[in-house]
Amino acid sequence: MTMPRLRLLLRLLAIQRVLFRHGLDEFIVQIHLFRPFRFLLYLWPFYWLGRDTTRPRAQRLREALQELGPIYVKFGQSVSTRQDLLPADIGAELAKLQDQVPPFPSAQALAEVARAYGRPASEVFAHFEQQALAAASIAQVHAARLPDGEEVVVKILRPRVREQVEQDLEVLYAVARLAERWWRESRRLRPVELVAEYEKTIINELDLMRETANAAQLRRNFEGDPKLYVPQVYWDFCRPNVMVMERIHGIPIDDMPALLAAKVNIARLAANGVAIFFTQVFRDNFFHADMHPGNIFVDARDPEHPKYCAVDFGIVGTLSEGDRRYLAENFLAFFDRDYQRVAQLHVDSQWVPPGTRVDEFESAIRSVCEPVFNKPLKDISFGQVLLRLFQTARQFDMEVQPQLMLLQKTLVQIEGLGRALYPELDLWETGYPVLKAWVREQAGPRATLRRLRRELPDLRYALEKLPGALRRFVEANSNDRPAANTVPEQASTGSRGNASSRYWLGAGATLLLGGVLFLGLGADPHWVGWALGVAGLATLWAGRPRP
Predict the structure, then answer these.
(1) 450 in the same domain as 439
(2) 173-178 contact pairs (CB < 8 A, 24+)
(3) Is this model's pTM higher than 0.85 or not?
(4) CB-based burial of residue 163 (10 Å sphere; 0-12 exposed, 13-18 middle, 19+ buried)?
(5) Do 466 and 513 belong together in one domain?
(6) Which residues contact 318 (CB under 8 A, 6 or more apart)?
(7) Rounded to an integer, what distance in angstroms lies between the CA atom of residue 78 and that of residue 72?
(8) Are residue 290 and residue 376 in the same domain, yes or no?
(9) Residues 92, 15: one domain?
């Protein structure tokens, strides 16, 4: 047996041992595929050795996820955002994974700091609190103070966390390959590609310099915005395994008693959360993709206009221009109840097979989506909606899009936060204006001008080469010397025609060049640039060489 396979086998046995020790076999046998084999549990040694079922099931589940490692904790965090879909006891217990994961010892934290800076924490910071302020699956944070007196938090990666993550990624890949081999639905659900997408996300999260850059970018995007505040990062103190940023003070987003006591405008807060999400995705194409309650606080100093404060920027998402455009158009068509457009967009983007009948797909989408319109969150059974969407996807052989995994996860988290904050929230009414404004801007002259400015260096290079290219084109398509059997009058006519053609081509190239430069340099009014460009193209067409 090769070393990787042996390592995988040992990890699977370790996972199995943890599940049985915490008495989680009761969850496993609830899966209908395993019910016929329940009697085999009595033959398994782990069933009789050290199995604990005295504690509540939710507590055993949480502790098992914590023991299994970062990937499993993150799974529990994501699931915990949907309290409406979970039994009450499990939902409450899994919520503790958001910011109550047991910290690693302070001695290890000090050792990691010393290793990162090459000197002890006492020489780097004016004060360093040894007891962790909060702990999560990947890292934990300590309060500290910089030499200039600035209050900060120091985020430190857990020791050996990369090794744990890589081990569990091997397990995920093994399960995905088995599914691909033996499960008929795997071609549509693309499990190996999903794991590969997740691998990129989790590995990036282990580099705190990347997280620092994410925080700096998000802060620039929302500089001066009244809805979201992103703390400042201190680059001079950041390392791949240690990150230092401004300490913020706010109310945890899921602490409803504190928010109510501060007289926060909950309806505005919930609506702002949806607007922030759509702004990040469509305006900036850079969105915070780990928005569980442990990462979101509320600045309630102005309770009528509360502000979100975000932390933990290890997971951010971006989309390709094509995916973003199709998603925006899908959302708008959905908001307008234009289900035929939704169906056609799915076919155009090849999210469903090319031969899909648009009318049938439209009818299926309408049957799922129409019942949830004009209803607040509290009246929508998203469990039922999701189930019907899955059935529709299977019916029309719709493939999963791995590149949208982070967006879908974040959308589910946002909806969960909205439900917890303000169940009367209308997601559609809140998101529609943001999307409409973005689509209008993308189709307008300003967007074209931005693209021209971005591509101006390439345009300048191309325009520098344009005169030579036109000259070669004219020479290749003209003949100033008459053929031997051409009469003098014909030769003279051909010469005048070629000269006229060169004149028109030169004039057209000049007009086109002027239009491109006019637009590329952002001169006003814009219509002059467009007029010059159109005139240039028309002149080039009129002066094209003719036989």
Answers:
(1) no
(2) 174/8, 174/12
(3) no
(4) exposed
(5) yes
(6) 285, 286, 287
(7) 10
(8) yes
(9) yes
- Is 290 catalytic? The answer is yes
Cα–Cα distance between 183 and 196 in angstroms, integer? Answer: 18
Site of tokens 């006591």? 261
Backbone angles phi, psi at 142, to 5 degrees: -125, 140
Closest CA to 228 of 151, 295, 144: 295
Helix axes of 191-205 and 405-421: crossing angle, nearest 10 degrees = 70
Instruction: Classify strands 134-135 and 139-145 as parallel, antiparallel or unpaired.
Output: antiparallel
What mean pLDDT do residues 330-344 have? 82
Same-domain check for residues 402 and 464: no
Pairwise CA distance, residues 362 & 238, whole Å: 51
The 3-state DSSP class for residue 351 equals coil
Q: In this predicted structure, what is the pLDDT of residue 83?
A: 60
Same domain for 382 and 467, yes or no, is: no
Half-sphere exposure of 278 (CA within 13 A, CB side): 23
Instruction: Let me know if 257 is exposed, middle or buried by CB neighbors in 10 A (0-12, 13-18, 19+).
Output: exposed
- Beta strands per DSSP E along 269-332: 287-288, 296-299, 307-310, 316-317
The per-residue pLDDT for range 66-86, each reduced to its tens digit, is 877 777 777 777 666 656 556
Structural domain of residue 62, as residue ranges?
3-97
Q: Is residue 125 part of a domain?
A: no
Comparing C-alpha atoms, which of 157, 160, 131 is closest to residue 143?
Answer: 131
Q: What stretches of 444-523 show up as alpha helix (H) in DSSP?
A: 445-454, 456-476, 488-520
Same domain as 283, residue 412: yes
**Which residues contact residue 93 at a Cβ distance below 8 angstroms, ignoring those fewer than 6 apart?**
56, 58, 59, 61, 62
- How far apart, in whole angstroms, are the C-alpha atoms of residue 512 and residue 504? 12
C-beta of residue 313 within 8 angstroms of C-beta of residue 215: yes
Catalytic residue, chosen from 25, 290, 312, 426, is 290
First to last CA, the chain: 75
Q: Mind listing the pLDDT tens digit for each residue in 366-392?
A: 887 787 766 666 666 555 565 566 567
Is residue 19 a part of any domain in this protein?
yes
Domain check: are 428 and 453 in the same one? no
CB neighbour class for 323 (10 Å; exposed up to 12, middle 13-18, buried from 19): middle
Domain count for the chain, please give it: 4
Pairing of strands 228-229, 316-317: unpaired
